[in-house]
Amino acid sequence: MTTGTELPPRPADAAPGRRRPKTRTAATRVAWTWLVLSSLAIAAYAVVPYLTASLADLSDSGAGLASNYEGRPVVVQAAFYAHIVAGGLALVIGPFQFWRGLRDRYRSVHRWMGRAYLAAVAIAGVAGLVMAPFNEAGLVGLFGFGGLALLWLVTGWRAYRAIRRRDVASHRAWMMRNFALTYSAVTLRLWLGVLVTAQMLAGGGSVDFGDAFDNAYFAVPFLAWLPNLVVAEWLIRRRGLPSYRISNGAETTSPSRG
Ligand code: HEM
C-alpha cells in the first residue's frame, strides 16, 4: 500500500463532471450488500465450527472436512487452521475495501485493512498450497485448488506492487481479480448446493445424498473460481480499468476501451 502521499483520483468513474447513472449506482449498492452479507455468512458458517470443537469431535459428527484432516501430519493440520482463520479474515475484510465511502473518507483505514487483507491472503494462500495435495477431490482438487491458491497469491502480489508504484487503476483491477478468488469460498458452497439439489431433483428420490455430494465436490475445485474471474474481468473492462490481455505470448494488462 502507499506510504504517505495522496493517491490520484480514480481514472474512470471519478472523472470530473461525470455522473454514474442512478440505476447503475443502485445495482452496485445491491451487489455490494450481497457481497458483504454472503461473505460474512460463509465466514461464520464455514470457519466458526472448527474453532469451537476439535477435529476429532467434528469428525465423529461428520462435520465438514474434519474427517479428512483429523489424522493428517501436524504440518497439514496447522496449515488447515491457518488457512481457515486467515481465509475467514480475508473474506470478512475484502468487501469493505470496495466501499468507496471508506476509501475516500478514511484512506488510512483502507490502507491498514488492505495490509491486513493481503497478509491474510498470503497466509491462507500458502496454507492452501500445503493442503491441496491432501484435498478430498484427488487430482482435480490438486490442480483446481492448487491453481486457485497460486492465482490468489499472484493477484494479491500484483495488487500490492501496483499500489506501491501509485498505479491506482491497476491496483483496483488486481484487487477485483483477487477478491473474485477470495469469494470462491462463497461460490464453492453455492455451487455445491445447486449441484446436489439438481442431482436429487433429476434422480427423483433415487439418488443418495452422499453420492450427489461427492459428484458435486469433483466439479467445484474449478467451478468455484473460474466463473468469478470471468465476471471480475468483465467488471474491470466495464469500469475502464486495465483489463487482462495475452499478446505475442507475453501477459500484459492494458487499458480497456469498454
Ligand atoms: C481463494 C483461495 C482458496 C484456496 C486455494 C482454498 C483451498 C482450500 C483447500 C485445498 C481446502 C481443503 C479441501 C479439501 O480437503 O477437500 C479448503 C478448505 C476450506 N477452506 Fe479454503 N481455500 C481458499 C479460500 C478460502 C477462504 C477465503 C475461506 C474463508 C472462509 C476458506 C475457508 C475454508 C474452510 C472453512 C475450509 C474447510 C471446508 C469444510 O469444512 O467444508 N477458504 N480450502
How would a textbook summarize the main sheet? Answer: 2 strands, antiparallel
**How many H/I helical runs?**
11
Shape: globular
Helix content: over 70%
Indicate the low-confidence ranges by residue numbers.
1-17
User: Residue-averaged pLDDT, rounded?
Assistant: 89
Radius of gyration: 20 Å
Oligomer classification:
single chain
Ligands bound, unique: protoporphyrin IX containing FE
- How many domains? The number is 1
What is the percentage of strand-forming residues?
A: under 5%
Count of DSSP E strands? Answer: 2
The string of secondary-structure elements, in order, is HHHHHHHHHHHEE
CA-CA gap between termini? 27 Å
Which structural category fits the helices and strands? mainly alpha
Strand order of the biggest β-sheet: 1-2
Describe what this molecule looks like in 3D.
71% of the residues lie in helices and 5% in strands. The chain is mostly helical. The protein has one domain. The protein has a two-stranded antiparallel ribbon with strand order 1-2. A hairpin with a 2-residue loop joins strand 1 and strand 2. Helix 6 runs antiparallel to helix 7, helix 7 packs parallel to helix 10 and helix 8 packs antiparallel against helix 11. The protein is globular, with a radius of gyration of 20 Å. The two termini are 27 Å apart. The relative contact order is 0.10. The N terminus is likely disordered. Bound molecules: protoporphyrin IX containing FE (HEM). The site of protoporphyrin IX containing FE has 29 residues, from helix 1, helix 4, helix 6, helix 7 and helix 8.
